[in-house]
TrEMBL record:
GO terms for cellular component: membrane. This is MATE efflux family protein. One of its GO terms (biological process) is xenobiotic detoxification by transmembrane export across the plasma membrane. It comes from Anaeromyces robustus. NCBIfam families: matE (TIGR00797).
C-alpha cells in the first residue's frame, strides 16, 4: 500500500511541480526583465507585486483551495456519469464566487499608491508601484478562468496538460516582455516601459485560458462538465459549503502571504538596496518552495480522492509517504541554496551590492528549507482532509504571534536588518511545521471518511 501511494504521489507531483515552477517563472518575468533596467524600477515593481499579492492573489489562491477539497472528494465518490457531471456545477459555483472576489480586488488595486504612502513607503517608488498595480488588473479574470480549468483537469487525472500549457506560454510571455520593455518598436515611452510587464502577463493568461478551454472541449476533460447550470450556480445554500472551506483556506494563505509581504514593506523602510535584495531572495526561495508546493497539491488531491472513496487506510498511508517525500525535498533544497548562493542572485541583477547582500541572506534561506517543506506538506494534508480552519489558526499563531514580532525585534532593536527579519520568519516556519504535525497526528481517518461523506451529500 505504501509503495503504491508513493508511486501515485510521484506520478501526480512531478507534473504539478513542473506546473508550479513554470508558473513561478511566468510571474518572475517582471523581475527578470525590469531588474536589468534599474534598481529603482526593480524596487518599485517588487513593492507593487507585494501589494497585489497581499490584496489580491492570496485571496484567490486561498479561496480556490476549496475546489481542491470538494472536487477531488466528489470525483472519488461519483458512481455514475451523471454524478461526475455534477462536479462541473461545484466548479461553476466556485468560479462565480472567485469572480465576485475579483471585483473587490479591482477596487483595492485602484488605491495602491495612497495605501503604500500610509505604510511609510518611498513616494517615488509608491507612485510607480501604484501604476504597475492598476495595469495588473487586466490579468485577474483570465487567471481565474485558467485556474478553474486547471483544477477541472487535475481532478480527472490530467496532470501534464496544464504543465504543457504554461510551458508553451513562457516564450510568449518572454517575447511580449522584450517587445514592451526593450524593443525599439514598443509603443510605450521609456519612462513607462515597466507597464509592459502587466500587459504581457494579462495577454499570456488570456492565451492560457483559451488553450485550456479548447483542450477540455475538443480533446479531453469534459467528463465532469455537464454544461452551465444557472440553477445550481445560484443555489446559495450550496455556496455555504464552499465558503466553509474557502474562507478558512483564504485566511490560511493570507496569514502566510501577508507575513511575507510585511517583510517586503519592512525592507522598503530599510531602503532601496535592501528592498532589491528582498525581491531577489524571495524570487529564489519561491522556486525552492515550488517543489514541496507541487507535492502538497498532489497530496491534497490524492487525500481527497482516498477520503471520497471511503478508504481510511490509504488516507493514512498517503499522509505518511508525503511527509517522508517532503523531508527528502527539504534536504535537497537546502544543499542547492547553500552551494549556489553566490551564483543565483546574478541571474536577476548586475548590481554587486545587491548580489553580495542576497548571497548572505540565502544562508538563512537554506537553513529553513526543511521546515518550510514539511510545513507546506502539512498545509496540503489539512486542505485534503477539509481542516482549513485549523491551518488558518496555526498560520496566524506562527507568523503573527511568533515570526513577525521576533523578526521585527531582531531587525530594528538588535539592528540585524534583513538577516534578523528572516531569522524571525524561519522560526515561524518551524512553528507551523510543529503545530501542523501535532494536529495531523491527532486525526482519526475513519471519522474523516464519515465527515467527507456528509460533506459530499450536502454539496
Amino acid at each position: 500500500m505504501y509503495f503504491s501511494e508513493f508511486k501515485i504521489l510521484s506520478r501526480y507531483s512531478i507534473p504539478i511541480i513542473g506546473s508550479e515552477v513554470l508558473r513561478n517563472t511566468l510571474l518572475m518575468m517582471p523581475v527578470l526583465f525590469i531588474g536589468h533596467r534599474s534598481a529603482f524600477e526593480l524596487a518599485a515593481i517588487t513593492l507593487g507585486s507585494s501589494y497585489c499579492n497581499v490584496t489580491g492573489w492570496c485571496l484567490l489562491i486561498g479561496m480556490d483551495s476549496a475546489l481542491d477539497t470538494l472536487c477531488s472528494q466528489a470525483y472519488a465518490a461519483a458512481r455514475t456519469r451523471e454524478d461526475k457531471k455534477k462536479i462541473g456545477s461545484i466548479l461553476q459555483r466556485g468560479f462565480v464566487i472567485l469572480m465576485a472576489i475579483t471585483l473587490f480586488i479591482f477596487a483595492l488595486w485602484e488605491f495602491t499608491e495612497p495605501i503604500l504612502l500610509l505604510c511609510r513607503q518611498d513616494p517615488d517608488i509608491s507612485r510607480v508601484a501604484g501604476i504597475y498595480s492598476k495595469y495588473s488588473r487586466f490579468g485577474l479574470i483570465p487567471y481565474v478562468v485558467f485556474e478553474c480549468e486547471k483544477k477541472l483537469m487535475q481532478i480527472q487525472g490530467i496532470m501534464y496538460v496544464p504543465t504543457f500549457i504554461i510551458g508553451s506560454a513562457l516564450p510568449v510571455n518572454a517575447l511580449l516582455h522584450y517587445y514592451f520593455i526593450f524593443s525599439k518598436w514598443s509603443p510605450l515611452p521609456d519612462e513607462l516601459a515597466y507597464i509592459g510587464s502587466p500587459f504581457s502577463t494579462a495577454i499570456t493568461f488570456t492565451y492560457m485560458s483559451i488553450v485550456g478551454i479548447i483542450y477540455i472541449k475538443y480533446v479531453k476533460g469534459s467528463e465532469c462538465w455537464g454544461g452551465i447550470n444557472l440553477k445550481s450556480i445560484f443555489n446559495f445554500k450550496k455556496w455555504i459549503e464552499f465558503l466553509k472551506l474557502g474562507i478558512p483556506g483564504a485566511i490560511m494563505v493570507c496569514n502566510e502571504w501577508w507575513a511575507y509581504e510585511v517583510c517586503a514593506l519592512i525592507a522598503g523602510i530599510l531602503g532601496e538596496i535592501p528592498l532589491a535584495i528582498q525581491s531577489i531572495f524571495s524570487s529564489i526561495t519561491n522556486y525552492s518552495y515550488n517543489i514541496p508546493m507541487g507535492l502538497s497539491i498532489a497530496t491534497t488531491l490524492r487525500l481527497g480522492y482516498n477520503l471520497g472513496e471511503g478508504n481510511s487506510k490509504k488516507s493514512s498511508a498517503t499522509t505518511k509517504i508525503s511527509i517522508l517525500m517532503a523531508f527528502a525535498f527539504g534536504i535537497i533544497n537546502s544543499l542547492v541554496l547553500l552551494i549556489f548562493r553566490y551564483k543565483l542572485p546574478k541571474i536577476f541583477t548586475d548590481d554587486d551590492e545587491v548580489i553580495k547582500g542576497c548571497s548572505q541572506i540565502l544562508i538563512i534561506g537554506a537553513f529553513y528549507q526543511l521546515s518550510d517543506g514539511l510545513a507546506t506538506i502539512g498545509n496540503g494534508i489539512l486542505k485534503g482532509s477539509g481542516h482549513q480552519r485549523n491551518g488558518a489558526l496555526i498560520n496566524f499563531i506562527a507568523y503573527w504571534c511568533i515570526g513577525l514580532p521576533l523578526g521585527t525585534f531582531l531587525c530594528f532593536t538588535l539592528k540585524l536588518k534583513l538577516n534578523g527579519l528572516w531569522i524571525g520568519m524561519a522560526s515561524a516556519l518551524f512553528s507551523v511545521m510543529a503545530l501542523e504535525f501535532v494536529t495531523i497526528y491527532r486525526i482519526n481517518w475513519e471519522k474523516e471518511v464519515e465527515a467527507t461523506v456528509k460533506r459530499i451529500n450536502k454539496n
